[in-house]
């Protein structure tokens, strides 16, 4: 019995030590085969313009960029009229798509790409395709590489 308690205590200590070593320093980095890959800026949590939800801003848009004009919570129509149409877009379903009787506007996600700027992520509407798409994430990536996987 004492051996089981000792092993359990060691396992918990090892788990806590592993978690503590993973604490971020403001950047996100990945390690592949022991080699650290370049870091990307950490996401900053930002309130939507009406204060009803939190969004994310990854990176910092330059003062004269199109992304500097944006606010979390803007609709896709507002963003397009303000900074123009995107160069590409990708739509995918979220796990909320499979919740019975879920009628919220986050059953899909829409990611739009602006060359030399980055990506914008919107809620993509409900399971029927309706609902306004709201801006929930701004990813500043002038050299590309901003797609979610």
From TrEMBL:
UniProt keyword terms in alphabetical order: Signal
Signal peptide, first to last residue: 1-22
Protein name (database record): Lipoprotein SmpA/OmlA domain-containing protein
């Amino acid at each position: 019995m004492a051996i089981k308690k000792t092993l359990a205590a060691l396992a918990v200590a090892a788990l806590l030590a592993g978690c503590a070593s993973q604490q971020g320093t403001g950047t996100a980095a990945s390690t592949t085969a022991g080699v650290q890959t370049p870091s990307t800026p950490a996401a900053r949590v930002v309130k939507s313009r009406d204060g009803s939800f939190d969004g994310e801003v990854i990176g910092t848009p330059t003062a004269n960029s199109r992304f500097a004009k944006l606010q979390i919570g803007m609709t896709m129509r507002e963003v397009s009229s303000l900074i123009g149409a995107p160069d590409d877009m990708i739509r995918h379903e979220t796990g909320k798509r499979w919740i019975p009787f879920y009628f919220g506007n986050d059953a899909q996600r829409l990611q739009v790409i602006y060359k030399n700027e980055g990506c914008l992520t919107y809620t993509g509407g409900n399971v029927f395709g309706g609902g306004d798409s709201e801006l929930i994430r701004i990813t500043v990536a002038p050299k590309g590489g901003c797609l979610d996987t």
